[in-house]
């Protein structure tokens, strides 16, 4: 079973990469209100139980994949 | 000249300031020893530790995040709990933050540029093991991820408890409150590179002060 961990910088943290992309879009007549850049990490579990796999993914995300001071994450079951 | 006091220098895959630290530690009169990232070690017998700069694990995931989970950091955490002096420089500072041995995190520079230049620093709250009592100094910086960040509440607590060690005189990277270095007990981290300023011909020898009382 595959679970994706989507990591984004927290709203209150200035995302310098997102801001650079935002400005480039604006300069190319494709302006958006806001752009943030994060990571998309796919974990492959031998586990078939969704609940258990999500529990493991949460534990992994909390211990390593995201830093709660500056980032937030969401899980997506693939 | 060489003292019997041993200083452990941690090396990770991608560390690149290790030999400079070795030399600075020797110049300060201590006996340096390498600590390999994939080994535990016995903290007894050491007087202090340095985590050098570089790009451990190629800065994958987040700067310092993977190194923070290595075996050598388990032993360094033990040294931290025992109150032994630990100095993290640049990537070493990032590793100490990711290991939660220091508060906060280091983000990409506000300009997105890698910045390599000299900066003026102010010592806000001195730590006798590193940098001595000088109120100001100049040191070189060389980093892409040096923007110090912590939430407002944490920053206030850090000022109140004298954990803010160094600030930039001219904030180069967008760090909150211009913070360049922080400390908790005898564990301290800074983005500038004191080991790159240990001879006058390097531009300054003020960096040597950071190693003189490390053990």
Brief overview:
The complex is a heterodimer of chains A (78) and B (215). Chain A is an alpha+beta fold and 78 residues long.
| Distance between the first and last residues' Cα of chain A | 7 Å
Q: What characteristic shape of chain B results from the CA principal axes? A: globular
**CATH architectural group of chain A:** 2-Layer Sandwich
Count structural domains of chain A.
1
- State the share of residues found in helices of chain B, binned by percent: 10-25%
Mean of all residue-level pLDDT scores of chain B = 95
Q: Kindly identify the CATH topology of chain B.
A: Rossmann fold
Question: What does this protein structure show overall?
Answer:
- The complex is a heterodimer of chains A (78) and B (215).
- Chain A has a 3-stranded antiparallel β-sheet with strand order 2-1-3, covered by helices on one side.
- Helices cover 36% and strands 27% of the residues of chain A.
- Chain A has one domain: Phosphoribosylformylglycinamidine synthase subunit PurS (Mth169, Chain: A), CATH 3.30.1280.
- Chain A contains 2 helices and 3 strands, in the order βαβαβ.
- Chain A is an alpha+beta fold and 78 residues long.
- Chain B has a single domain, classed as 3-Layer(aba) Sandwich (Rossmann fold).
- Helix content of chain B is 20%, strand content 28%.
- In chain B, strand 10 and strand 11 form a beta hairpin.
- Chain B has a 9-stranded mixed β-sheet with strand order 2-1-3-4-11-10-9-6-7, sandwiched between helices. Chain B has a two-stranded antiparallel ribbon with strand order 5-8.
- Chain B is globular and about 40 Å long.
- With 215 residues, chain B is of the alpha/beta class.
- Chains A and B meet through helix 1 of A and loops of B.
Keywords:
heterodimer; A: 78 residues; alpha+beta; Mth169, Chain: A; B: 215 residues; alpha/beta; Rossmann fold; 9-stranded mixed beta sheet; 20% helix; globular
Topology:
The complex is a heterodimer of chains A (78) and B (215).
Chain A: E1 2-9, H1 16-27, E2 39-44, H2 50-65, E3 71-77
Antiparallel strand pairs in A: 1-2, 1-3
Chain B: E1 6-11, H1 18-27, E2 31-36, E3 46-51, H2 71-81, E4 86-89, H3 91-98, E5 105-107, E6 115-123, E7 136-143, E8 147-149, H4 152-160, E9 164-168, E10 179-184, E11 187-190, H5 209-212
Parallel strand pairs in B: 1-2, 1-3, 3-4, 4-11
Antiparallel strand pairs in B: 5-8, 6-7, 6-9, 9-10, 10-11
